[in-house]
Predict the structure.
Amino acid sequence: MIDFNIPPFTGREIEYMEQAARGGKICGDGPFTKKCQAWINEHFNFPASYLTTSGTAALEMAALLTKVGPGDEVILPSYTFCSTADAFVQRGATLVFVDIRPDTMNLDEKKIEAAITEKTKVIATVDYAGVACEMDTINRIAAEHGLLVVEDAAQGFGSTYKGRPLGNLGDFGCFSFHETKNFSMGEGGALVLPNLDHRDEAEIYREKGTDRSKYFRGQIDKYTWVDYGSSYLPSDLNAAYLWAQLESYDTVYNDRMKTWNTYHEAFEDLEKEHLIERPQIPEECGHNAHMYYIKLRDIEERTAMIRHLKEHGILAVFHYIPLHSAPAGLKFGRFDGIDEYTTKESERLLRLPLYYGIGDENRQTVIREVRSFFGC
């Protein structure tokens, strides 16, 4: 069986986890946590980033920093994971779902202004498949209406928009290092601060509502409980696992890109024959090969393709059920405008196996069986 995903493992993870265990500091903000944060900041030129227990936790911190609450509204795509929505629902905000673009599966920037009301406080973007939204337009709209932008870049670690790294394109950015992501710590994520205006607040929220971070920097002689917070710090064991992969960043990136490019080239003729649609990458976007998907004619054909691949030992999967159609989506929000593409495109999309170390034999097997479905 060719799995859809296998968590990345570059070879030194166990060694570093043992170092963390023997070092006597396995709780949050240990040596490996600091190494990872420093690497991320230096590699992407971020002012500040903070490892968290998950991408969900990073989004929750971002929602706290926006100060949204009951009566406020947040604009977001319906085609996303529930964590994007949950972070704001927990603050009491109302969700306003907007249609997506069929080319990138991202929030349609042309539909945002019509959804803005006097209650709108935040636009939450999602960089689907590691491809950026049209962020210049979205940021311009936000500035004109006095809104904040939270960039859910859970899938976008290492991607760019007009040469700028994702996660740094709004007021707050959020990454995920879940086992399904390009770089993993099992469960984990990171909050990115594009500027340092909210650093003190972010550190207080992350440290259970205390000013403990200032204490460890020697800025105060004792720390105390100063505001609401939670424990968003991951274990240093998790960070040690991630550190092994950040050390091998180029190797992991290039391997995934080879798979993405191999698929893309192999399916070009199928697209020309109008049998499938391949991913579209806007000229201004540099992607990270987070996923490779194809779009079939409809949900029936997709179901048949999934069955065909499974019969030949290949696990391929669809993705999100649009949130506005879910019980919680109906409870906590509304869809603004017409659902022209969200549901239709979600029912056609199929993700193919793509993970670090998949190997050429497995790549060719996937290609062969996708083509055989169409008799090619």
Summary: The chain has two domains: 13-247, 249-373. The first strand starts at residue 48 and ends at 52. The domain at 249-373 is CATH 3.90.1150.10 (Aspartate Aminotransferase, domain 1).
